[in-house]
Structure formats: structure tokens, C-alpha cells
Model the fold of this input.
Amino acid sequence: MMVEIPDSHPRKKSLESRQKIVEGSSKGLLADSAMIAHGRGEAFDYLLGERTTKSAREAIRESAARLNNASSPVISVNGNTVLLAGKKALRLAAVLGCPIEVNLYYRTPERIAGLLALLEEHKTVVLGESEPEGFEGNWSDSVGAVSLLGSSPDFRIEGLEGPRSHCMEEGIGSADSILVPLEDGDRCEALVSLGKEVIVIDLNPLSRSAKMATVTIVDEVSRAFEGILSELIGNPNEAPTEWNNDSALRSALGEIDEFLNK
Done:
């Protein structure tokens, strides 16, 4: 049962996110380790001051430019992402004109089907929402055109073992740029080795995912999605740069140190 959290509570957003994970887990949508993963990210968000830092804004700008420049972008999501930011992922996919693919480490047919069904519910909600300010085009058509993939894997990621190696050719298989929130390092490394651009959203700048990615956004997934969407609409002609991801991660660590020593 969803607990009502008063607006005055200083941890309202954090508690709402935890509750979404709890509810999703009770419905069988998440692996048993989902709360552990969420808690780890939440701890790093505390260290960042629960804000989008300067280095994160720069990474968001770079990510938006690269996704906009890609021929076949895709947003790859796991259970936590669908629960925490599924509607925002759909809004972003609608603007990019790209599919969303569910790809899980702890994969079961029931969990995949449940997450895809929840994304369909989110899609109905997003269809009824106002289009993003500055968006040009038919919002209903753009949202309706977002393909939701993952139910019938027909492609295998070369160099990767385990359930996450199985994906869809229409999505990850043929993508040149992949936006991956809350990812594991093994798949990120395998995709990069195949010449694909991998944009990771990870609150932990020390994770293998963060270190292996083409571009890492050290930020909370909902804030990152909102930031990318804003950049896509506000700066559609932004060009990718010669991005140095190691330098960006060092900046993120420096911002944590600066926040802790205020």
C-alpha cells in the first residue's frame, strides 16, 4: 500500500522513490537485489547534495548532442528505471524518435512482460500530458510511435555472457548510441568494444559502468532524463565534442569532496 508522505517532509522525493521500489518488488517486477541497488545510488546522491552538479550538466549536454547526432539511438532500461522514471524515459524517447528496450540481468518472462505492461500504462499517461515546452511536431504521434522492446530477444551481444547478452536487433543490436541508466559494467564494456557509444547514468562515479562508458552522467536518473530532454529541445544544434570521460569523473569526485567540506 502506498504511504502518503506530506509535502513538508524533507525526504519526500527520496521516500517516494523507495516506496516505488517496494511496490514494484511486491508485484514481482524487480529482482530481490533492487532495493540494494537503489540504496547504493541514494547514498551517492546524498554525497552529491541531491542536485545536478556542474559536471553532470556538462555530461547531460554532451549526451544530448550525441543522442541527437546518432543514427539509431535506443534507451535501455531495467526494472528500477521503469519504476522510478518510466514516464520520463518515454517523453525522452518520443523527442528522440527512438525505441525503449527492457534488458534485465535477473531476467524472467514474467518480469519482462510486467515491465513492458507498466511501460504501456505509462505511455497512456504520457499521451495525455502536455508536450514539452518548445517541442515541434505532433506529440501524440511521437509518443505513440515509441516502440517498447524486450519480449522476444533475437540478437546476442558478442563478448558478453549471461541473460543481458540477449537483446533485440531492432533495439540494442542495431543501435549506434545507447542510453543506459543504472547499468552494470560488463555489458557496458562489451557494447563499447563493439564500437557502440554508451551513455551511462550512474550516481556512483567509481563504478565499472561509469568508468567504461563513453559518457557518464553522475546524476539521479529522473533529473538526468529531464536534463537531456531540456537540452534536446533547447539546443538541438549542439555538436558532440572530444569528450574526456575520465576527466569528467574526476570532476564529479571533486564536487563530492567540495560538498562534504562545506
